Amino acid sequence: PITSISIANVVEEWYRPNSPAEAADPLHVYSEGLIEEAYRKLASMESAYGLEIQYAMKANPNAAILKLLKNLGAKIDSSSLNEAIRAQKAGFPFHDITYTTQEITEGAER
Predict the structure, then answer these.
(1) Which of 54, 52, 62, 50 has its CA nearest to residue 89?
(2) Which of 1, 10, 23, 90 could form a disulfide with 32 if both were Cys (CB 3.0 to 4.6 A apart)?
(3) How far apart are CA 28 and CA 2, in angstroms?
(4) How are beta strands 97-99 and 75-78 bridged, if at all?
(5) Can you give the pLDDT at residue 74?
(6) Are 54 and 79 a contacting pair, CB within 8 Å?
(7) φ, ψ for residue 2, nearest 5 deg
(8) CA distance 35 to 30
(9) Residue 37: enclosing H or E segment and its boundaries?
């Protein structure tokens, strides 16, 4: 997790574009601590019937984030077969993946 250094230092130290075109590429920085904190707040909510947290992969399919959420106890909401496969590769067992799609392509495994 990023702790004692600022985001500006991270960008300055590790993001050194070689050209103006490369500088136009986005740089995404995530805080493991903030993700954990948000998850724990959700998980601590009262629920009469129990609470299951499902992460919608379409929000961000980053493998490191998926692994972190899996370790915290989240399940996955995938909207495509590709997302379900990606979640499985990140360590989610199939029974922890909900497949919510509008249509299934012909010949796709279910």
Answers:
(1) 62
(2) 1
(3) 13
(4) parallel
(5) 96
(6) no
(7) -80, 125
(8) 8
(9) helix 32-43
